[in-house]
Amino acid sequence: MIKQTFFSLIFGLLVLGSCQNAFAQISVGIRGGVLLTNLDIDPLQEGEPKPENITGYQVAIPVEIGIVDIFAIQAEIMYGSHGARQEGSSTVTQSGFTTVTDYKLRSRINTLEIPVLAKLRFGDNALKFHVLAGPSFGFGINGKFKQEGSVLATAPDGTILLDQNLNEEYNAKFVKENYNGSEVADDEIAVTKTNLNLHMGAGISFDLGGTALFLDARYMLGLSDLSPEEDGTPKENETTSKSRRIGVSVGVMFPLN
Fold first, then answer.
1. DSSP assignment string, 182-235
2. Which residues sit opposite 201 in a β-bridge?
3. First-to-last CA distance in the chain?
4. Distance of CA 6 to the CA centre of its chain
5. What is the percent of the chain where pLDDT is above 90?
6. For position 2, what pLDDT does the model report?
């Protein structure tokens, strides 16, 4: 479904480009910037640390279709990512034997997204402000999960029984909900193939004699669960991982007509 939407959007933009005189203005541009990404995991397991932000980047090609002076539709093709990091330490003591585990887990899922946004514009030609909001459809391209840490186990007399470093890496395996466990290899972690997000933001643009330089800031709320459940998973063992992102970018827009 996402792929069909993607190609339909591309075709639609080409048609609109050939019929640009029917609209007040059509502009095409490019923007790039940083993403601050995190995951809302529910529920967290006992002792599991809360996810923290990681930094990524975004690159997008926006197409703005002006309907009237204050209102436009902005569709984009955007490359971005989802992810987070978790750092924690646990100590377990039983019958005098103690095991201390320190670990760092970092996840990053790269996606191609198609935001379709309603945009309100205020100001004059030299300086404009805007607010925008709308859904974004995405599908996974690739992803990595990296775990680092150490395990130290000691006997009651202090003798070291185990002193081991952890350094493991897994690839994202894109699957559908209720997937078959045999689809995912030992060095892979299941990730939902498609996702739906909500973009909300604001910005400012400066006229440079036709070309516009703009600054764009957004909050991107993930509506889809990125961690699919294996077929047969008991209800009480299910978890959800939803993306939370903040993005800031700069770009330029070029009017076509």
1. GGS-TTEEEEESEEEEEEEEEEEEEESSSSEEEEEEEEEEE-S-SSPPBTT--G
2. 132, 218
3. 33
4. 17
5. 71
6. 47
